[in-house]
């Protein structure tokens, strides 16, 4: 792992798994997503990880025109690195999941490194007051429908978006096997250093939120990639800040945001993404770690620069 002198904070502002009934603070509309991104950047985030939602009901959206309702504001009001998700939702085709990224050609895009069970069905049993009709079935369907990202889909993404447009990737690794999948594409020359590995813990169907797993993931990544990669980590749910702190302590980077955790502390919902960023900045300062600016993040990750995007 490249032990960075400064920590890159990524903020995932809305995602596509949490449904609006889970929190009144979850950004849904373009104005809310744009505002959340701007506030997060002002609080210290260098990278903004973005999904889109339909404003009428908060359901996951892939259409470039929906992304186009908030991306220009983020570009105009911040210098943050825009990271467009290629994850979308399990119901979307790979072409749909790539539609926004291939349209706007961002500096960075997320890429899940494998087909997997990604189960959020348990949350449905804890919700009694539903805001929208689609939400309950959407959550329950995760119990029987996996998230699909086969090797041919990963290769298509790397060639179409990476080689074709110069976008680099946040490689989301939900298990140790995903590191070996990434190594396959590195060996074939489709992924070049320096690259960003995002370790994801605590999703049902992926690796558990056990700190020994985080240490093990770094050990295996070091074995496979040496000093060719930057590492970041987050855990879904209540251990979010613990895992971000662990990652920073190891010399890595961090990710926070309402996509990953709806709470700021036990029993207290986070009122905004910026609140989580501010808390993380305080933790990093206590650890003696400096915070990377967007341009410093660009330099570390070898990004093509804001001017080379279509935003």
From TrEMBL:
Cofactor(s) this protein cannot do without: Zn(2+)
Zinc in keyword set: yes
GO MF assignments: 3-keto-5-aminohexanoate cleavage activity; metal ion binding
Superkingdom in the source lineage: Bacteria
Keywords: Metal-binding, Transferase, Zinc
Manganese keyword on record: no
PANTHER family: 3-KETO-5-AMINOHEXANOATE CLEAVAGE ENZYME, 3-KETO-5-AMINOHEXANOATE CLEAVAGE ENZYME-RELATED
Protein's name according to its UniProt entry: 3-keto-5-aminohexanoate cleavage protein
